[in-house]
């Protein structure tokens, strides 16, 4: 069953529409947040702190998210998450104070960590026919479509942010008011997602999952997910993918400006090309067959190689080509990981595994942003140029090598091998 057949399913199509609009707003808001923080602080490390905001939600919010997604119905979790984030996005830009901005951005990430595993756990329920269950290939297509709602909106969100910022500057708006429109538009996209999800009668769990939840929920928690062999085998891959993403986004602005000499336009182009690569990766993974863990390993290794070469070569041409390959590789690895969990697990264990997936992904993004940005600042302050490279260039190359080495941590549990057919 292909892309068209999946999108012909009414309720799945409604979910995808809401997620596409919401992701569009999220990427606008993410870019606005980076520039807003840079304007308020003038610090590259503070920009990296935007992604660090994903560390504490992962560490503190994951146990809460695990409890919520195993006790409440998915539809309720998603509706409340969208409504709460709407008010938070409205509040974020009204006070141009760094602590205020960080506070609301942090809370938005906590609620997002609750929303995402509920959404991903609902996907198999929405695509399952009454007559027969989905196969691995069908589920991977559905996951690819879902992930496309996020990565596919990167170039659109980046372009919309640039346009809105230009319009604000043209209108003579100054200071934080240039960003208010972007954040409030992001709030409106959460409302669109709310309306789309509210129109779906049921998001599961199914009858079998409901019985299992009632029996196991009192004993379910985030640590229970980390004890699952399937989770322990795949999460290292998720972590190193997040490491590459966090390092690139944290150092991207400085790398493009100081090494490539391309400025803000060049960074925007890099983000757009990453989104193009993500979409290309989603199309390619549905045209091949193979083991899902092999897909995770290959995508992770390719991502590490690309990042290392981007930093080591410092070439504008390779950096822009590499952004496309990077987007395709990261998307392939993440879709493979989500599909592996959905196929290998069910009920409470599936919900917990998906919570762990998103928690580790966000934790890795935050940790990479913190360490990469801090290391580059330290090298810059010391006036060091390791191997003749600029600080940001060297840290980016080293990050790629770490990602590549991390692929050796991914292993297949003996009791749960999942192959696409």
Can you describe this structure in just a few lines?
The protein is an all-alpha fold and 421 residues long.
Write the layout of secondary structure elements.
Elements: H1 3-7, H2 10-41, H3 44-52, H4 55-71, H5 74-91, H6 98-127, H7 136-151, H8 154-170, H9 177-198, H10 207-216, H11 222-226, H12 229-259, H13 263-285, H14 292-313, H15 316-344, H16 347-381, H17 391-406
Helix pairs in contact: 2-3, 2-6, 2-7, 2-8, 2-9, 3-12, 3-16, 4-6, 4-16, 5-6, 5-9, 6-7, 6-16, 7-13, 7-15, 8-9, 8-13, 12-13, 12-14, 12-15, 12-16, 12-17, 13-15, 14-15, 14-17, 15-16, 16-17
Strand segment count: 0
Q: Which structural category fits the helices and strands?
A: mainly alpha
Q: What assembly state would you assign to the polypeptide chains in this entry?
A: single chain
- The gyration radius over C-alpha positions equals 21 Å
Proportion of β residues? under 5%
Helix content: over 70%
Number of helices, counting only DSSP H or I runs of 4 residues or more: 17
How many strands, which pairing sense, and closed or not: the largest β-sheet?
none
Estimate the mean pLDDT confidence: 77
Q: What is the 3D shape? A: globular
Uncertain segments? 211-219, 415-421
End-to-end Cα distance: 12 Å
Q: Could you state the order of secondary-structure elements as H and E?
A: HHHHHHHHHHHHHHHHH
